[in-house]
Specification:
About 20% of the residues lie in helices and about 35% in strands. It is built from 4 helices and 14 strands. The strands form 2 sheets. Strands 1, 3, 4, 5, 6, 8, 9, 12, 13 and 14 form a 10-stranded mixed beta sheet that branches. It has a 4-stranded antiparallel beta sheet with strand order 2-7-11-10, with no helix packed on it.
Length: about 260
């Protein structure tokens, strides 16, 4: 007679050292802008000046740390007091992607105007911003066109200390959202470093970047979704050095 005892459930795999956060941990930076310093400048050109400043800050932050795979910008109406005027201008949501973007990458907003570029870099991002600002639309009386938000939602990130984290040329990470352990991470060796991105069927990319503009300042939110770049160590040092570059250019940290 065979052994009819219930088999023991398999032991769960040992957790890894690093994990994907349930909720993003964030660094928030602000940059005040002298909106009235050029009173004779066309309002769209003032928008362009601040938008270009934001794009250059994004690319400065990303240098050696983050490779954006998509870039989005939205535009809106505001009244003479810089308050949202209600409704949206036509073609208000613009989205940039390349052949290297994930096949399922899309804008988080509806009805995007999609642009394709050979590479996602400062120049292609500036081109998208200019397209969004220069696209013809007739403003209702008493309102004007502004850019409102920029987003980088799909990213690769440079892995810190790859010799320490890689085993058998693979990297695994725990995904707390999906209660999954030791999930294999896509790797890309490029320019002498190892870059990583979101595993298939997982939720969070390593970084999400967002820039918003108010009537007083530009605000950048850096959402850190993987522990490699948040816990103390070389990864956090890489992030801190990137943030420090922006602080030296006049940004200041408001969180944490």
């Amino acid at each position: 007679m065979g052994d009819t005892r219930a088999s023991e459930p398999p032991e769960p795999p040992e957790p890894t050292e690093h994990y994907i956060f349930n909720d993003s941990l964030t660094v928030v930076l602000e940059h005040a802008f002298p909106w009235d310093s050029k009173p004779d400048l066309n309002p769209i050109e003032r928008e362009r000046m601040t938008a270009h400043h934001a794009v250059r800050a994004l690319t400065e932050l990303c240098q050696g740390l983050i490779r954006p795979m998509t870039f989005g910008v939205t535009r809106n109406w505001v009244d003479t007091y810089h308050w949202p005027a209600g409704g949206c201008p036509p073609r208000w949501n613009w989205f940039l992607r390349t052949t290297q973007s994930p096949p399922d990458a899309h804008s988080m907003y509806v009805d995007p105007q999609v642009m394709e570029a050979a590479a996602l870099d400062e120049q292609s991002m500036l081109t998208l911003v200019d397209r969004a600002l220069d696209d013809p639309c007739e403003a209702p009386e008493g309102v004007r066109l502004v850019w409102e938000e920029m987003r980088v939602d799909h990213t690769w990130a440079r892995l810190p200390e790859p010799d320490r984290h890689l085993a058998n040329k693979e990297l695994r990470i725990d995904d707390h959202d999906n209660k999954a352990r030791r999930v294999p991470v896509p790797l890309d060796p490029a320019h002498g470093h190892i870059w990583v991105t979101r595993p298939k069927n997982m939720v969070w990319y390593p970084f999400l970047l967002r820039v918003n503009k108010s009537d007083e300042c530009i605000e950048m939110t850096i959402s850190v979704n993987w522990s490699f770049w948040w816990h103390p160590g070389e990864g956090r040092d890489m992030l801190d050095r990137a943030v420090d570059r922006l602080i030296r250019q006049g940004w200041f940290k408001t969180h944490p």
